[in-house]
Amino acid sequence: MRHELTIKTLSDIDSVAKEFLAAVGENRLIAFYAPMGAGKTTFTTAICRVLGVADDAVSSPTFSIVNEYRTASGESLFHFDFYRISKISEALDIGLFDYLDSGSLCIMEWPENIDEILPEDTLKVTISVSADGSRSICWED
């Protein structure tokens, strides 16, 4: 089944993030595919905010590759940015599968750089930018 949510303006982002989390249910591995500047980190920040992660705790893990946050319920949430990954071995060197197998929510940016090793149950989500500046969040389950 195809799903699509629209972020019309930045003021809608938290409500869309809440709707997204409800729609994806128990999916723990979420990969965001989108061009540079489409809003992957901004949408991830909104998801974190909805889950009770402190706003000032969330940042793009471009250089660290992975950041760990704590939700309001005390659960870990792992935020990955594979933009700088040029070899699969670099992802494996950080212990990627330990994170992915943890049962914690794992949100991944630039997953296309490690597509060949992503688990089959990874939810692949596309973010696209419309001419009017709105964002479409699309996935199939």
Structure description:
This protein has helices at 13-24, 40-50, 88-93, 96-100; strands spanning 2-7, 29-33, 66-70, 76-81, 105-109, 123-129, 135-140. The protein starts with a strand and ends with a strand. Helix 1 crosses helix 2 (40-50). With 141 residues, the chain is of the alpha/beta class. The chain is globular, with a radius of gyration of 14 Å. The protein is 24% helix and 28% strand. The model has no long low-confidence stretch (mean pLDDT 95).
Structure summarized in a few sentences:
The chain is α/β, with parallel strands linked by helices. The protein has helices spanning 13-24, 40-50, 88-93, 96-100; strands at residues 2-7, 29-33, 66-70, 76-81, 105-109, 123-129, 135-140.
